[in-house]
């Protein structure tokens, strides 16, 4: 798999790529299929990570320079580290159109499982909110007295629904996931999700990073039906990363991930309320630069290579 290199020109919109048809735009990624292929049955796809950033179901302006390359590089690192635990969707990071090299991956076509598979090793975010409201997270009853950033041993599998574009994902219990997908598939997803998380928690810890939680997505291969790890994996967009040397239970942790942007949006400095009907303001240059710096630090500390 190829190395990642920096570029000064952010990529926001889906480019035209010879030999590929653009079929889907996500919050951050663009999906292509080979020219003329049916998107519903294509056995190979091109997944392109742009420099867009989103929060609270809004796409924010401007983008974060190099973000797509950083996400792609971090995902590639983790796919390689996890290959003995779970098959993944990446076919090639190098056999891609030259104009999107470093941010595009040729991948297996998957029929995605309609579930966000979340592993939580620390209590924070919506998990903490659920705990404060009812003493449980994802159907797991937890002891009293836990606080912001309390460590959870063992880590918890806490699924959520996959919402349509513009809607909100909803945390559900493992029992509800069984009702949705069946017991066998849910148990397989839980086992794979927690295996990935525990491997990653150990590896990140060796690099001075606390992996608080992460979101994974799985799909079935269109060639043989194998359950495969798809999308991105263990990036600052899909995970919470904290520095181990500043970790302190009972307070909000400085982050090496997208939480920095969320925190700015909900601070008085932004002048915006996430409950309003107005779009968020443009990110100031300082917030863009600090966000990029956090993503670069996560990339370099995790992979051990300079960006």
Automatic annotation (TrEMBL):
SUPFAM superfamilies: SAICAR synthase-like
Domain SAICAR synthetase/ADE2 N-terminal: 23-277
A GO term from the CC aspect: cytoplasm
GO biological process terms held by the UniProt record: 'de novo' IMP biosynthetic process
Pfam families, alphabetized: SAICAR_synt
InterPro entries: SAICAR_synt/ADE2_N, SAICAR_synth, SAICAR_synthetase_CS
HAMAP family: SAICAR_synth
Name of the molecule in the record: Phosphoribosylaminoimidazole-succinocarboxamide synthase
Gene, per the UniProt record: purC
């Amino acid at each position: 798999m190829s190395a990642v290199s920096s570029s000064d020109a952010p990529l926001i919109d889906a480019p035209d790529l010879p030999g590929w048809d653009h079929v889907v735009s996500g919050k951050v990624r663009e999906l292509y299929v080979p020219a003329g292929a049916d998107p519903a049955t294509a056995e190979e796809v091109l997944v392109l990570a742009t420099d867009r950033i989103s929060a609270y179901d809004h796409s924010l302006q401007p983008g974060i320079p190099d973000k797509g390359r950083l996400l792609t590089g971090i995902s590639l690192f983790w796919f390689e580290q996890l290959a003995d635990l779970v098959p993944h969707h990446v076919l090639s990071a190098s056999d891609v159109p030259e104009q999107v090299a470093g941010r595009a991956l040729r991948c297996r076509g998957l029929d995605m499982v309609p579930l966000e598979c979340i592993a939580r090793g620390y209590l924070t975010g919506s998990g903490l909110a659920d705990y404060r409201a009812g003493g449980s997270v994802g159907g797991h009853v937890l002891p009293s007295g836990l606080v912001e950033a309390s460590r959870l041993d063992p880590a918890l599998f806490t699924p959520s629904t996959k919402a349509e574009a513009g809607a909100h994902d909803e945390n559900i219990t493992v029992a509800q996931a069984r009702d949705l997908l069946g017991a066998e598939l849910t148990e397989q997803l839980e086992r794979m999700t927690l295996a990935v998380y525990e491997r990653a928690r150990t590896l990140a810890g060796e690099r001075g990073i606390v992996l608080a939680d992460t979101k994974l997505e799985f799909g079935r291969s269109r060639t043989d039906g194998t359950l495969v790890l798809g999308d991105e994996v263990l990036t600052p967009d899909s995970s919470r990363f904290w520095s181990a040397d500043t970790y302190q239970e009972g307070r909000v942790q400085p982050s090496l991930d997208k939480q920095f942007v969320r925190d700015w949006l909900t601070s008085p400095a932004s002048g915006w309320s996430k409950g309003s009907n107005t779009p968020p303001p443009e990110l100031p240059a300082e917030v863009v630069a600090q966000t990029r710096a956090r993503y670069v630090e996560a990339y370099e500390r995790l992979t051990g290579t300079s960006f």
